[in-house]
Design brief:
Strand order of the largest sheet: 1-2-3
Number of strands: 3
Distance between the termini: 53 Å
Order of helices and strands: EEEH
Number of helices: 1
Shape: elongated
Oligomer: single chain
Structural class: alpha+beta
Helix content: 10-25%
Largest sheet: 3 strands, antiparallel
Strand content: 25-35%
Length: 71
């Protein structure tokens, strides 16, 4: 039986007090994109934009934090 390619992408976000790092990889673990943004509304908007520009396949996940953008 042959493996069926899924063409999936996966994202990881390193959440920090001052900045955040986004890394998007493909099924083979090859980095598609990396970006570092400040902890601000424009920075988070950039992460959202970059994730929205990527084709996703699979289930999502979410994370919680006790940090606020207003801090």
């Amino acid at each position: 039986m042959e493996a069926t390619p899924t063409n999936s992408n996966y994202a990881g976000i390193d959440w920090s007090w001052q900045h955040h790092e986004l890394c998007i990889v493909d099924d083979n673990g090859q980095r598609i994109e990396e970006v570092t943004v400040p902890h601000s509304r424009p920075g988070l908007a950039k992460i959202t934009t970059r994730c929205g520009a990527t084709t996703w396949n699979g289930s999502g996940s979410n994370a919680a934090t006790d940090r606020s953008l207003n801090s």
